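Section 5.1 Outputs to date
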Amino acid sequence: MTRYFIGIDNGSQSSKVTVFDTHGRTVSEGRQALRPYDTPRPGVVEHPGDDLWESITAAARQAMDAFPGDPADIAGVGLCTIRFCRAVLRDDGTLAQPVMSWMDERVGRPYEAVDPAAAYVTTSSGYLTHRMTGQFRDTAANYAGIWPLDPLRCDWSQDPTAFEKSGMPREMLLDLVQPGDVLGRVTADCARATGIPEGLPVVATANDKAVEALGCGLDSPDTLLLSLGTYVAGMAVGDRYVSDASAFWTNYACLPGAYLYESEGVRRGMWTVSWYRDLLGEEAAAGARAAGLSVEDHLNAEAAKVPPGSDGLLTVLDWLAPDDAPFRRGSILGFDGRQGRYHVYRSILEGLALTLGAAGHRMADELGGHYDELVVSGGGSHSDLMMGILADVFGVPARRAGTDSAAGLGAAICAAVACGAYADFPSAVSAMVHPGATFRPDAERHALYERLGAVYETVRSHTDAVYRQLG
């Protein structure tokens, strides 16, 4: 009998629901964009209404309507959601206030009660678990930051002062389970809203980046995963918790007992590429139509004609300033009359790659290792130009992920293990993860990008004083 597994990927821009078979092949899928954030005052960034749940139900109905098989052959559901969100619930599991985005300043501070009806404080995955199963449970691997969690035990702290510092008493926190454990089963209400069969086990995963890493098959400390989404960063796996690193931070992996090391990143990574595409507007669209290409493919084709280094144009991607330097802004430097719109586009891609290259090397140095290969996932990996630039910047082969929904596949892998389709995570990854195309570096271009990278690293030391004055 053929068995199927549903992977739910609730991301920063959309919710995606995908049905996979036991070989990791996509059978059907649905996608629903999230609504724009509400920002009622500075520092507050909220998901409007019940947008997270409503986007999942819409995407799930699309996936189930397109599913060609017998729903009785679907064995389980893996739930993956945006990390760093905070949800405050009433005692019946409904939202006491809007879900706080990962960009909301409050998620980095101790919890402060504003609604007397608030009974629970949890993550986006904890809230959505209750919507799907009626259970007040959550994956332990989606907690990082202010939460009173013991990172070595991957469970709530045994130190009472940890709860006091977080502002979260133990009775307001959900029970925790490990990735691959069952959170509960799909309720009748959830089944009516989503089309997912009632009674299916809903399986815990981790934070969205860790689940993406699992779906990409990241299993060696010598491989660096580059995630090219709204947030762009490099990730590696290991078996030790590193609490005092300066070039990266330690998160939970999607395998129990393992950790995910994440480099410094770009908070508006591929967002910048989309912003520039939209800024070109009809001009870019007209060129794409004339060439018989999508706008993205047209821009990539034209930018590929621009010499590496963009004829001296450097783009520094601080469109969303980091918390420790809120004065920063993005910079485009080096105009001298030779450059045009496609130089700017290529320099944005090169800026992303150079930032990732420097951050990845700092992380490797601190971990005492090196990277022999890149795996690249996310929307930016669709660009052959970007894949080539990354290989040339790092000087190692860059392999494209074999699926457009790596987090969804990672969630389905967790479900497949929990439901007994595979004996363990390595077996499931071996059967369900398939590599994409590989791009190999050019020695001459690598040498050029090494020289440019040294210059790129000095730019902020010159521009910071300017941006401080601008205020």
